[in-house]
Write a structure and sequence with these properties.
It is built from no helices and ten strands. The chain has 145 residues and is mainly beta. Strands 1, 2, 3, 4, 5, 6, 7, 8, 9 and 10 form a ten-stranded mixed β-sheet that branches. This is Peptidase S24/S26A/S26B/S26C domain-containing protein. It comes from Salipiger bermudensis (strain DSM 26914 / JCM 13377 / KCTC 12554 / HTCC2601). It holds the Pfam family Peptidase_S24.
Length: 145
C-alpha cells in the first residue's frame, strides 16, 4: 500500500553553546535560516530550540557535538524552577553556556557548575536568562537536515 510520506517536523539549531569553551551567544543564524534537526520522538517542536555543545566541561553527561533542546518560558531572567538543574544560559557578557545553575552569594548572581571534575566552575555570574535542558541527544542520533 502506497501513501504520501509527510516530511518530519524539524527544529532549528540556533548555534553552539559552551561547555568550557567560550562561545558567543548562540543565536548565530537568522530565525529559521540555520541548520535543522529532525524533531525527536515525543518532543513537541513548538517553541523548542536546539543548540550544539562545544567543549568538555559537562562530560560525561554532555559531549562536544551533542544537541540540547530547550524552551525559554521567559525572554529575560532566571526562573526559580531552573535552580539546581542543567540549563542553557546566556551570561551578561553575551556568552552562551550549558551548566548546572545554582544560587550565587547574593540575589541576581549565580554559580555555573561543570559536571566534569577537571573543569572550572564559574561563581557569582550575572545571567540574562536561563532555560532548563528538556532533552539531550547524543551527536550520533541527531539527524540534521
Amino acid at each position: 500500500m502506497q501513501g504520501n510520506v509527510s516530511a518530519k517536523p524539524t527544529i532549528a539549531i540556533a548555534g553552539k553553546v559552551g561547555a568550557g569553551a567560550h562561545v558567543p551567544v548562540f543565536d548565530a543564524y537568522e530565525k529559521g535560516d540555520g541548520p535543522q534537526v529532525e524533531c525527536p520522538p515525543g518532543l513537541s517542536y513548538n517553541g523548542v530550540v536546539a543548540v550544539e555543545v562545544e567543549g568538555d566541561s559537562m562530560e560525561p553527561v554532555f559531549s562536544a557535538g551533542d544537541l540540547l533542546f530547550y524552551t525559554r518560558d521567559t525572554h529575560d531572567g532566571v526562573p526559580d524552577d531552573v535552580i539546581g538543574h542543567r540549563c542553557v544560559v546566556e551570561d551578561a557578557s553575551g556568552m552562551g553556556w550549558v551548566k548546572q545553575v545554582k544560587l550565587g552569594s547574593e540575589p541576581g548572581l549565580f554559580n555555573l557548575i561543570s559536571l566534569n571534575p577537571s573543569a572550572d566552575n564559574m561563581h557569582d555570574v550575572k545571567l540574562n536568562w536561563a532555560a532548563r535542558v528538556r532533552l539531550h541527544w547524543p551527536a550520533e542520533l541527531a539527524r540534521k537536515t
